[in-house]
Structure formats: C-alpha cells, structure tokens
Description:
Layout: H1 2-9, E1 11-21, E2 26-28, E3 30-33, E4 36-41, E5 48-56, E6 61-66, E7 68-82, E8 85-107, E9 113-138, E10 143-151, E11 161-175, E12 178-189, E13 200-202, E14 205-214
Antiparallel strand pairs: 1-5, 1-14, 2-13, 3-4, 4-7, 5-6, 6-8, 7-8, 8-9, 9-10, 9-11, 11-12, 12-14
Amino acid sequence: xxxxxxxSAQGIHFGFEAGVPLTEYFETGRSADLHGSREYSAATRxxxxxxxxxxxxxxHFGFETGALFQRMGYVGMITVxxxxxxxxxxxxxxxxxxxxxxxxxxxxxxxxxxFVAGGGIIRYIGPIHGTGQITVNNLIAxxxxxxxxxxxxxxxxxxRWYPGLTFAGGLEFDAGRLRIGPEFRYTRWTANIAGPEGAxxxxxxxxxxxxxxLL
Length: 215
C-alpha cells in the first residue's frame, strides 16, 4: 500500500503560472562625465506569465522548470561632446524577456501542502527593437544633421543571457484534478547589464507573487 501511494504521487505535471512583479524590472538613472551623459527611465509591466512543468519523484520531492515571460522596455538619451561636436542620441527600446528557472522542490505534507523550492535561473532577452534618432550639432560649422535609429541589437543589452539564483515558497492545494499553488519567488541576479554605477541595469533583487495551475 505504501509503494502504491508513492507511485501514484509520482509523475509529470504540466500547467502555467501567472502573477505580478513586486519590484522594478530595471534600475535607471543618470551618469555623466566631462564628455557627456547617459540618462534612462523605464516602467515595469505589471504581469508575468508562462508555462511550467514539474517532475515529481516522490510525494515530497520534485524538480520543476518553466519559462516566465515579461515585456521589457526603456527610453534613454545619450549626449557626447567632442571637438566642438555635440551628438545627442534619443531612443525607445522594447523587447521580450524570459526567465527560465530550474529548481528542486520539497513539499512538507500531503494535505494543504506548503512547499519550498530553490535552484538556478537564467534570463534571456530578445527579440529587441529600438527606435529613435541621432542629432549631430557641429558648433563650429553651425550645422545640424538628424538621422533615424531602427536597430535590433542596442548596445545596452547586446549580451542576451544572464544567470541568477532563485528561491520560492508557497502553499499547494487540490481543486479536483487541478493543483493550485500561490507562491512568493525571490531571484538574485548574479550577472547584470552594467555594474553597480551603471545608469541602466536589472533590479538585482527581484520579487514576484505568482499563482500556478498544474494538471
């Protein structure tokens, strides 16, 4: 009977999860030196959604992965002054962001099951599309030229893969054949777009509230 109970709890479960970010996607600000400046701003899209799959080995232990999707975007202005020429670049960049966790999961009991999970995560950024314009003012010759920007590889995020560590905790319960599990997830990004002094970078400590639905 014990063996049969264990076997019935094992298997592969598919579903999806959705929720809201509790922190900002980007840290933004302004940096400047003698030759120019960079200034960024961004608004976090308040949703996260994606598929999830769990491989349950025993009633208590399992492994899960998935792909959490968000839209990302930012606007920026870069100015450079060199030899009497002032170059201003203004742009609006938007793209897709996928967070792919791979975590071990432990359930504490069979009824009203609290759980914890932890492991690695990787973020993929793309595709990305940036539009805007570059204005070049020659202060010596008193001329101005303007040309448009339309790119898919903005210099701010040319690196597309970023690793991190993620931890989650929540409560799982059954509704017929459906498993419902609200959870809180914390992610620490161990790589970033820029260093701590950068004007555009991920929020290094990310928090989300999610609800998953599994069959």
